[in-house]
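#struct-pred

JT: dropping the chains for the assembly here, can someone run the whole complex?
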Amino acid sequence: MPMPDCPTDFALPASDALPASLEGVAGWDLHMHSRASDGALTPTDLVDLCHARGLTRIALTDHDTLDGVTEARERCAALGLQLIPAAELSCQWRGIGIHIVALLPQGVSAGLNAGLLQLAEARTARSREIAHRLEKIGLDDGLARARREAGSERPLGRPDFAAALVTAGLVPDRKTAFKRYLGAGKRGDVKTHWPALESVVGWIRDAGGVAVVAHPLRYGMTRRKRDLLFSAFIAAGGEAAELVSGYQNPELTRDLSRQLAFHGLYGSLGSDFHYPGGALAPGTLTPPPRSHVVPIWRHPALGPLIAGASAAIGQASIAPRLHHERS
Ligand code: AMP
Ligand code: MN
Ligand code: MN
Ligand code: MN
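RK: done, full complex below.
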């Protein structure tokens, strides 16, 4: 379909109409990371890899930042991929760290930008606290070590501390670092700085975006607890959840599809890709099962843009983060 408004000569092939259901969908990945957070690739290299793998519609969902989106958008425009401006925002609910993917077809509002600043500050304060806690197990100067592992000035995350623990010889590998010290409930799993679920969902709504519960099966929750999470999320204005995140047990995925349909949540999907060479690549995920879950692209805020009826998705303003302290 020709798109005269588009900044490039990009046009969707006629055969690339939006699928009616999540089942059988191909070419989509709405959850991936770049060097703007804890991913290994630059946004440009990530988009190149997506293109090489035949993806057509993607979201870059770095942790608590849209810093990589402008670069990714330029590369997507050059290659004819559609990019939904996005981020994966950290929050807490009932003492559990929860990730909410913000799909932001209209970009960042003033309210959301204030939220992103708060998240950046929370991440900085939290990394100090994590470093402090890891001193007790023998990691001296953890902040500087994690900073060296990050290799840039971006806000630090737990993977940087995991790498620091490995380099310091305190654990054999990153997996063990999470298992012993950084994973859910361990001493380095600091959640207290994160805003409440309700705040984060509110910021996303303020920006005209769609809030998506990321990887609902990865919080170690019972189905009942997940019901409570979804209810709280919906009460706050949330509208979607990831039906599939990377590789998922098909049985649990079918059950999750029933749960999403019951709550009337739109279904999204993504690999949660971080780095090449692992089990995941852009676009690799367990095939979504047949279900009554309504695909995320049917959401009124996203559908027309993804379908190419407007060029606005390519022009949404991505407000720069005004500052963040070196952590
Ligand atoms: P943070 O945003 O700083 O809390 O770090 C969370 C990130 O750590 C996740 O997005 C993953 O990239 C990584 N992560 C979380 N749990 C594990 C784990 N068990 N093993 C390896 N990486 C993990
Ligand atoms: Mn991550
Ligand atoms: Mn996550
Ligand atoms: Mn992620």
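JT: nice. The longest strand covers residues 86-93. The pocket of manganese (II) ion (ligand 3) is lined by residues 88, 99, 214-215 (CB under 6 Å).
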